[in-house]
Predict the 3D structure of the following.
Amino acid sequence: MNFAAILPEAILTIGAIVLMMVAAFAGRRSAGVTSWAAIALLLAAAVSLIGPPQTDGALFGGLIAADGFGAFGKLLIFLCAAVAIVAAHGWFERDFEHGAEYPVLILFSAVGMAVMVSATSLVTLYVGLELQSLSAYVLASYRRTDDRSAEAGLKYFVLGALASGILLYGISLLYGFTGTTQFSGIASAFAREGTHSLGLLFGLVFLLAGLAFKTSAVPFHMWTPDVYEGAPTPVTAFFASAPKVAAVLLSVRVCLDALAPAIDAWRQIIIFASLASIILGAVAAYGQTNIKRLLAYSSINNVGFALIGLVAGGPRGASSVLFYMAVYVVMTLGAFLCVLRMRGEDGEPLESMDSLSGLSQSRPWLAAALAVFMFSLAGIPPLFGFWPKLMVFQAAVAEGLIPLAVVGILGTVVGAFYYLKVVKLMYFDAPGRPFRKARTDLEGILILLAALFVSPLGYLLIGPLGTLTANAASSLF
Amino acid sequence: MIATLAFYLFATLTIASAVLVIFARNPVHSVLWLIVAFFNAAGLMLLLGAEFIAMLLVIVYVGAVAVLFLFIVMMLDIDFAALRSGFSKNLPFGILIALVLLAEMVLAAAAWKAGPVTEGAPVAASQPNIEAVGAALYGRYLFPFELAGLILLVAMIGAIVLTHRSRGDVRGQKISRQVDRDPKEAVRNLNPGVGEGMKL
């Protein structure tokens, strides 16, 4: 057994357990210490990804793989987790709500997601996914005195449990009809069958349905707006970034590794999920008055674009998905960090879109940053958000999927409307009540970095990021 | 022959009682039907030659999980007077179920002696069941097994985070103060005279 290969997970797990002991004995006062320690642990785990040589092939008897694909996903996940901890530190009221358990739960969730992106067996896939989900249910209802937060947690839990049941049913069917839980074994079983038996197809559909719930792709997106609205904003920022990366990357590995010979079977499903997500995400966001719900629909919409890259398949498609998720994560985290700054005079968090009106006059820098993120999420050309969309469409066109690309581009145009609505509110409407002055400088720096990343300056990164994603994707094939 | 018969008996009763779990109007009855379903599933495991898992099903699921369910169901708002009124009426039916379970146990023992119906997981005949399960859990599947432990840990943390609140009006135990207490200062010997009473 090669324990060096699971070093990042080991660091996070042991660190989280130690932090939990600190939290148990030092009580709520230790929230600050555990937060910074958790960020240090995430940094150490990220560094350890660079250190040991990447071993190709499966470890622990084919249960996980420590390849470049997984390493890239883990880097993104650890980044999101660290930002979620930083954001929470400034957001929760000190002493009362910001329990020291928050960073611990984020760390366990990160371990679960790290296992998800490196799973090469249905057993590890399920266990990692469940570890991530269970932490997420608790995080969603973290402000238990708030009714909406409790509702979000309950809703997420009930629907998530149902999705887990569907996923497990698919897994048991696949195991029953192939006799193995390993991705390579399932792939060879599909290749051997030629025409796939009904049992295998049922297993495939259930498995993809369970994964679609986790990526919140239409038609399994129903929970997303409610949970995103109800959960505390730093937790929502976390949900919109890290679990999405993990679930999308997991879907990529399942489809391109385990189900590779059955491409004709899963491709139509993913095409439907992707187009439905793009269209519904764009249309349903129209009437929203809550900025968190709007960003929830934006995340559904963006997952649809990422899935176009998966439909294209091959090294090019996979690398375009990785590129897309990397840029998406920065845009979304930046937008949520701006939302975190929306606080009324008494420090109460504001979420309605109306409270943004005239922001360009009261807080010009915040308005400019939010406008950059909105333009970028809409995929408007001078900004960096345009490039990953172009990449997934290019990958789709190269595979001859021109109708898919055309509908996707139309979806972008429709979706641009509501992003621009936010910009219009900020720049052309009469100013409303001013926000309270923000105290936390670190978040300001993070917003600035994210804004620079998605600004046209980001195009300088196309070279290095492109090489990184291409290398990561090539380890799948 | 007897093994096949036992299989169909167990399988039919598992499905039938599972259906009754859903259709029973009274939640307590649902849980009781669930126990019947667990017993029958344990019988199926026994037929497969997995005695250890069969025993686990009975001990863990019937002994712990189902009883916990019962506790939770009892906390629901149920009219127990209406429930108890039908006891004598339902007694024959209850005895019937008990007899069926008993017959099943006898049959299972007989069928188990007759050998497994199908080839289960390829386990060396010399290796006991528990050893095989242990080797799989702690050898090949060590990684997911440890992760499953982490999931339980998260569940515990979650339950505490969501329900624990620190209340100011509760006096906590201060062990250091208890240990530091000196018996010479804590105890006074008094000898009051007759009719004087005790002054504290």
Remarks:
- The first strand of chain A starts at residue 58 and ends at 59.
- Chain A has a mean pLDDT of 87.
- The CA atoms of residues 263 and 439 of chain A lie 52 Å apart.
